[in-house]
UniProtKB/TrEMBL annotation:
Family: Belongs to the UDP-glucose/GDP-mannose dehydrogenase family.
Lineage: Bacteria, Pseudomonadati, Campylobacterota, Epsilonproteobacteria, Campylobacterales
NCBIfam families in UniProt: NDP-sugDHase
InterPro entries assigned: 6-PGluconate_DH-like_C_sf, NAD(P)-bd_dom_sf, UDP-Glc/GDP-Man, UDP-Glc/GDP-Man_DH_C, UDP-Glc/GDP-Man_DH_C_sf, UDP-Glc/GDP-Man_DH_dimer, UDP-Glc/GDP-Man_DH_N, UDP_ManNAc/GlcNAc_DH
Annotated ranges, domain UDP-glucose/GDP-mannose dehydrogenase C-terminal: 316-419
Keyword terms of this UniProt record: NAD, Oxidoreductase
Designated name of the protein: Vi polysaccharide biosynthesis protein VipA/TviB
Any Pfam family the entry gives: UDPG_MGDP_dh
GO biological process, alphabetically ordered: polysaccharide biosynthetic process
GO molecular function: NAD binding; oxidoreductase activity, acting on the CH-CH group of donors, NAD or NADP as acceptor; oxidoreductase activity, acting on the CH-OH group of donors, NAD or NADP as acceptor
Amino acid sequence: MEKKLCVIGLGYVGLPLAHAFSKKYKVIGFDINELRIEELSNGFDRTLELSKEQVEEAKKNGMTFSNKLEDIKDCNIYIVTVPTPVDSKNKPDLTPLIKSSATIGKVLSKGDIVIYESTVYPGVTEEICVPELEKTSGLKFNKDFFCGYSPERINPGDKEHTVSKILKITSGSTKEIADVVDKLYQSIITAGTFKATSIKVAEAAKVIENTQRDVNIALVNELALIFDTMGIDTNEVIEAAATKWNFIKLKPGLVGGHCIGVDPYYLTFRAEELGYTPNLILGARQINNAMGKYIAEKTIKILIDNDKKIKNSNILVLGVTFKENCPDVRNTKVIDIVDELRKYGTNVDIYDPWVDLSEEKTHFTHELMAKNPFELEKKYDAIVVAVAHDEFIKLTKEDYKSISNGKEILIDIKGILENPDWRL
Ligand SMILES: NC(=O)c1ccc[n+]([C@@H]2O[C@H](COP(=O)([O-])OP(=O)(O)OC[C@H]3O[C@@H](n4cnc5c(N)ncnc54)[C@H](O)[C@@H]3O)[C@@H](O)[C@H]2O)c1
């Protein structure tokens, strides 16, 4: 039977995947966000993962975008790429996964396959999504319909490691379905696939990739705090230590975004449910979450050391996205710096040329400067370079001088400035 794919959730993960599949198969992109469907139908991807030409290419390949159930009922492979956030208490919020499973259940037919790509803890596909599919479809798992899990590894803003160039883990609910799922991805992933032994193994593999990174960054962050008290430059220490073949070279920094700062909570939640307290992983989370406050306190101390008044001082924060050259502001930890600085009565301006200023579209509630501060008259007592966007890497000492109130005070979180007043 001809494969007809439906990708559910057209965000950072779903859209590039749907584009890649459209080169080989008939694909429908489904999303509940009406604005997203409208923009994509007009060739515009606000995540900037796909260019206008790429969206148009997908459309030319026959791909359509929709938020209507009737448009997806003829599909036989459903691929779910909806968000998996945490709530205010860092508990997994599985609502989008449950709701999208209920949507699929309404159109599921005998022989169909549902493949989940969203990052979860081991067991979510078979213990939470499958019952929802069975309930809404009235069909039986592994008899009438089947499932797969294939985690995504893309890195937003990275134009080199794009979806088809990253080796992909695949899995299926039966041996035969694992083969079908693996072949499906093999047909578009030039880097190849790795067939995991079960859905749970594939789910666990994804969540530990990001947990390992989080723990390793937390170690470097903790070392940075220690070396700061010793007056040693952490970056210089890392350069030296990295001359050993098996040293893992990571930089200290903020851990924000939708993945590394969130996924470990999925694993710790499930571990705690099962009676195990994952102290190392939770400790790493705490260290990484505290970095924004630490950077803000350091900035205040440096202002004091430079005989600056704190209350009503003007501070400019350059960059607010969770990473460089990307418009994604979800779970950005730069905001922790801003909020902490404001507690001291300072006036903080935030400038980020990558972020859409319309709150309704980004759901970002902190006010951003509409104009480039380097083209305005306002002077600042300190400048915090928080994100290494290309636009900021190009700036010179003279640029910073031109908008500084007296001697420029530069706080460099990303290690991109020469001789800053403080570098993380
Ligand atoms: N962004 C990344 O770099 C990245 C990398 C690897 C894995 N992941 C994982 O992939 C998943 C998706 O992440 P993302 O960054 O693409 O998210 P996203 O927020 O960019 O996109 C998700 C899309 O799903 C849509 N959606 C939400 N609920 C829906 C529903 N019930 N039905 C249909 N559409 C729905 C949203 O409108 C949105 O357009 C998450 O589990 C994430 O952890 C993300």
